[in-house]
Amino acid sequence: MGLLSVDLLITLQILPWFFSSCLFLVLYDSVVLFKHIIMLLSCSKGSRGQWRRMVTSEGLRTVWRSFLLDAYKQVKLGGDAPNSKVVHVTHGHCRRQSFSEKGESECHLLDFATSNRPLVVNFGSAT
């Protein structure tokens, strides 16, 4: 099976979800437009703001890209964990030193896993 047929298969799997999202955005825009018209007819002072549409070419491209990103992601529920490269930082070293001098070494995520305990990874800042 070639790369083109895999892309076609993924596209066919994404299309129903994409169209349902587009339908939701159209319904949302309709409700907001209806509310905006009601506010204009009632001469409300709150109706002077601009109406921002959800269904635009940029918005639909964003929705399509998000579905593609989700379809092509490498991590699947119940599948194997990725073995990404990470930097192991040891404590007590100055941050201004070079990479090799400050106690950091490049390794892989699953190097820290053991069978007798769960692997907990904290992605964030401690500042």
Task: Kindly describe this structure.
There is one protein chain. By secondary structure, the protein is mainly α. Helix content is 43%, strand content 8%. Strands 1-2 form a two-stranded antiparallel sheet. α1 packs antiparallel against α2. The radius of gyration is 25 Å and the shape is elongated. The model is unreliable at 92-99 (pLDDT under 50).
Secondary-structure map:
Elements (H helix, E strand, L loop, with lengths): L2 H39 L15 H16 L12 E5 L14 E5 L19
Antiparallel strand pairs: 1-2
Main sheet attributes: strand count, strand direction, barrel closure? 2 strands, antiparallel
Structural Rg: 25 Å
Q: Assign the structural class, choosing from mainly alpha, mainly beta, alpha/beta, alpha+beta, or little secondary structure.
A: mainly alpha
Given the C-alpha coordinates, what overall shape results? elongated
What's the oligomerization state?
Answer: single chain
Poorly predicted runs of 5 or more residues: 92-99
User: How far is the N terminus from the C terminus?
Assistant: 49 Å
Q: Helical element count? A: 2
Adjacency order of strands in the biggest sheet: 1-2
Please tally the β strands and state the result: 2
